[in-house]
Amino acid sequence: MSAATLVLDRVDKIYNVGGARPVHAVRAMSLELSPGEIGALLGSSGCGKTSTLRMVAGFEEVTHGSIALAGRPIQAEPPARRNVAMAFEGYSLYPPLTVRDNIAFALKSQRIDAAQVERRVAEVAALLEIEDILGRHPSSLSGGQQQRAGLARALVRDAALHLLDEPMGQLEPRLRAVLRGRLKHYIKERGLTVVLVTHDQTEANALADRIAVMEDGELQQFATPATLRDRPANRFVGAFIGEPPMNLLPAEARAEGQGVVFDLSRDARLSYAPGEVTAPVRDVVLERGRVIIGVRPHAIRLSDAGFSARIVANQWIGDQSHVAASFSGGSVVVVQHERVAARSGERIGLAVEARDLHVFDADSGVAVAHGEAPA
Amino acid sequence: MQHQSTFERVLRGVLIALVLVFFMFPIVWILLMSFQTNEQILRIPPSLLFEPTLENYRALITGRLETHAGTLDIRFMQNLWNSLILSVFSVALALVLGVPAAYAFARFRFRLGEDIAFTLLSFRFAPPLLVLLPLTLYFQDLGLSDTYVGLVWVYQLICLPLILWIVRGYFEDMSPDIEHAYRTAGHGWLTTFRRISIPLTAPGIAAAGLLAFIFAWNNFIFALVLASADKQPVTVGALAFVTASGIQYGQIAAAIVLSITPTLALALYAQRYLVEGLSLGAVKG
Ligand SMILES: Nc1ncnc2c1ncn2[C@@H]1O[C@H](COP(=O)(O)OP(=O)(O)OP(=O)(O)O)[C@@H](O)[C@H]1O
Ligand SMILES: [Mg+2]
């Protein structure tokens, strides 16, 4: 792959709100994006996603660290010279202009000829289903229409980097699902490099090549959707990615002959025979002793070989059973594709295969092992 | 409004008429007075029928006031001119200083920002005389007393806080992302300020400017203390109508009519911007 398009190097953002305690919105964020790549910033509200985008676009000063775009440090440049297009979270259309003129605005000031501007505006309007509102003024549009117009205005531009801040946050799920596919096609066809902010995992998974999971201003992991699912870097990412969330169970790991046993409580345990857990995993796990085991709800098997738990709730939601169960060491959620007949109050046996285990350090939460390999 | 009986409509018309008469009566009466002589005005009972005369206006414009005790020089036109100069330049200066300052207060958080803004506002509620007495001394030292420059400067105490606080609100209501979008499209900060921020808040700026103009125009105390005869605005100059031989009602009325004309004209002119401002506020997302 060629040199990175966007490089954030240990970027910090501290807001000094007069009088109050400074807000440390982004902490030592480092991240590289390759040309033509779609990166998503995913995280809960207030974790610093918008702040990061605004620093890249140049509306907020970088407190520490540096940002480079196409090999050029940009953190001291004004927004006008960064060659970045942005779609905003809130309303940002210029009220006196029609939607068409709003979209065409940047192209016109680049002196692109009228016919081409017309063609490109029509294209992006069709993509986002806003052809019928092109002649209207922003004030007469619904929130979702304004948002799509703002997105169109960013997408229509040629820029080194496109920043999309929750570009579909106001749209209803059906339209969002339709646009998602089209948007990805449009971006890939033109080879645009994109940073997308969202708190919708499905959207991030569908659109992004790599996802940056953020929490409280800190980057937790920047990886492909598959890696985030299979090899979460820490217990936060493990619990954050996936629906329903991963079960996290504190456990004590100890050797039993050549095998490994995880004691979940005094009478609940997961034991593995020598062949089941690989030697490297066995070594790192035993070295830790106190760990947290992460198991995705889909990976839990109903089997009398494991530990016993009492069903708290059992719901069949059309294509899968969601079972909530509690045992002496805590509670777990189990998802099964076959209908589970047992009812609340009954006991079931739960087991987890060694290759479905995620092991995290009990104190730091950092991943120790995933399935058959150490982290 | 469709389900309205005739009675309701008539009642509404009558009430509106009452309100109009209540507010307009003094102004109409003054307008009528300005076309009458002192004798006609003081006649009892007062009558709506009279022979209009332009004598009052002639006296004001030529500057010669005829009274029983003889003729008197008044400088009403000079006063009017002074009012115009003082108000126009004060508002212009306040706009030039206040609009960028309002923008800064709305967009940037800086140390002591709120305190500075509040201090500026507090000029509005300090008793003017308290400021004036020391100011007179300083102005004499600086050679600023009885100059247009000095008066325009002092008038900033009236105009600047008004403009600053009203326009700031308009800037705060405007989403900064509108500016940001324009800036990413390749425009500098100053261009964005001129081409996006100012036009979008123009109605607010017009309203603030009009208000500041009215306040400056109506100011009395600053000019009374700091200006001598040839720099006096109409508010102070009007004292001249109280003469040894009585009060010249006809001329006062004419003077009032002439002195509200500029403000009225400005208000009518600014009206479309004000209306535009209201509709802009109504549609904002
Ligand atoms: N201008 C500002 N001044 C002070 N604090 C700010 C400012 N902008 C953001 N913050 C704070 O910085 C933190 C991160 O905000 P940011 O807008 O980046 O979050 P976000 O991840 O985009 O959230 P959301 O998903 O809700 O949009 C928040 O705690 C927020 O309160
Ligand atoms: Mg945000």
List the helices and strands and how they pair.
The complex is a heterodimer of chains A (375) and B (285).
Chain A: E1 6-15, E2 23-33, E3 38-43, H1 49-57, E4 64-69, E5 72-73, E6 84-87, H2 99-109, H3 114-127, H4 143-155, E7 161-165, H5 173-190, E8 194-198, H6 201-207, E9 210-215, E10 218-223, H7 225-230, H8 235-240, E11 247-256, E12 259-263, E13 269-272, H9 279-288, E14 290-295, E15 300-316, E16 321-327, E17 330-336, E18 347-352, E19 358-361, E20 367-370, E21 373-374
Parallel strand pairs in A: 3-8, 3-9, 6-7, 7-8
Antiparallel strand pairs in A: 1-2, 1-4, 4-5, 9-10, 11-12, 11-14, 12-13, 14-19, 15-16, 15-18, 16-17, 19-20, 20-21
Helix pairs in contact in A: 2-3, 2-4
Chain B: H1 6-33, H2 38-42, H3 55-62, E1 64-67, E2 70-73, H4 76-107, H5 113-122, H6 128-142, H7 148-173, H8 176-184, H9 189-218, H10 221-226, H11 234-237, E3 242-243, E4 246-247, H12 249-283
Antiparallel strand pairs in B: 1-2, 3-4
The structure holds adenosine-5'-triphosphate (ATP) and magnesium ion.
Magnesium ion (MG) is lined by residues 49-50, 89, 165 of chain A.
Features:
heterodimer; A: 375 residues; alpha+beta; Rossmann fold; OB fold (Dihydrolipoamide Acetyltransferase, E2P); 2 domains; seven-stranded antiparallel sheet; six-stranded mixed sheet; 25% helix; 35% strand; elongated; B: 285 residues; mainly alpha; MetI-like fold; two-stranded antiparallel ribbon; two-stranded antiparallel sheet; 12 helices; flat; disordered C terminus; binds adenosine-5'-triphosphate; binds magnesium ion
